[in-house]
Write a structure and sequence with these properties.
Blueprint: H1 2-14, H2 24-27, H3 51-86, H4 90-103, H5 107-117, H6 119-138, H7 141-154, H8 158-165, H9 170-178, H10 183-206, H11 217-225, H12 233-260, H13 262-265
Helix pairs in contact: 1-3, 3-4, 3-6, 3-7, 3-10, 4-7, 5-6, 8-9, 10-11, 10-12, 11-12
Length: about 270
């Protein structure tokens, strides 16, 4: 994961060619297999785009979607779960029902619908921010339910009762004492959610609903799919990038679960 974060920060600077550069189309170096020309180590596609450069250029964009959408989901989920778990009565029931409604929504179809409705925004270079916002807005219910369950457990512990007996207000008890003690499962779920958001973005771009002017792994997979029999390398290498990145986040989630759960440490 450190490797992909490094590429997220420096990928644009390490790429030998600009974003969506079709230079090989005019230089006669299209359809190059990998490892035949060190100027294009991972080959080129039919339109002349360098595969190695596009993978590097696409890494920051894919991680931007994965991490950005997760930050939005965590912020909404923790807030909703905290209020629903600590509060009692009608408001808590309303928030819980609202969360359950969001769990039933087909997020991928909604994103594709928004991408089609806001096609001018997508074509104008706002495709990735739009996808990030929609993924974040519709990805919080699971975090909210986990946060609510943790708060229902923590609010009855002794230190919370002691804070209440000392006269601490509900807001201070919730955000100073309860929320910091429920972050361990939230952190684990967040790493898995990043992987899921990256996969969703790849699917959206592969289906042709992403921004055609922005480099992403899914867009490269889509362009290589039409020539998979003759230009297999165009899809293989970005596919491997997706596999290793998602696998890394999943393994990090498992590792954090073991490290942050005292029962598993024992």
């Amino acid at each position: 994961m450190g490797f992909f974060v490094f590429l997220m920060v420096f990928g644009f600077f390490l790429a030998p060619y600009p974003v969506r550069d079709f230079g090989c189309l005019y230089q006669g170096c299209t359809n190059l297999p990998p490892f035949t020309d060190w100027a294009h180590p991972l080959g080129t596609e039919n339109s002349g785009i360098d595969v190695y450069s596009e993978i590097l250029n696409g890494t920051p964009n894919d991680l931007f979607v994965g991490i950005g959408a997760t930050v939005i989901s965590v912020a909404i989920g923790v807030l909703v779960g905290a209020i629903a778990g600590y509060g009692r009565g009608f408001s808590s029931a309303i928030l819980l029902g609202f969360t359950q409604v969001f769990l039933t929504l087909p997020v991928l179809i909604i994103i594709l619908l928004f991408a089609r409705v806001f096609v001018l925004l997508v074509a104008g270079g706002f495709g990735l921010p739009l996808i990030t916002l929609i993924l974040g807005v519709f990805g919080w219910p699971t975090i909210a339910l986990v946060a609510r369950g943790e708060i229902l457990r923590i609010r009855e512990l002794e230190f919370v009762q002691a804070a209440r007996a000392l006269g601490a207000g509900n807001r201070r008890i919730l955000f100073r004492h309860i929320v910091p003690n429920m972050l361990s499962p939230i952190i684990v779920i967040s790493t898995l959610l990043i992987a899921g958001n990256i996969l969703t973005e790849v699917i959206i771009s592969f289906l042709g609903f992403g921004d055609p002017n922005t480099s992403t792994w899914g867009l490269l997979l889509q362009e290589g799919f039409a020539y998979i029999r003759t230009e297999w390398w165009v899809s293989l290498f970005p596919g491997l990038a997706v596999v290793f990145c998602v696998l890394g986040f999943n393994l990090m989630g498992d590792g954090l679960s073991d490290a942050l759960n005292p029962r598993l440490r024992e």
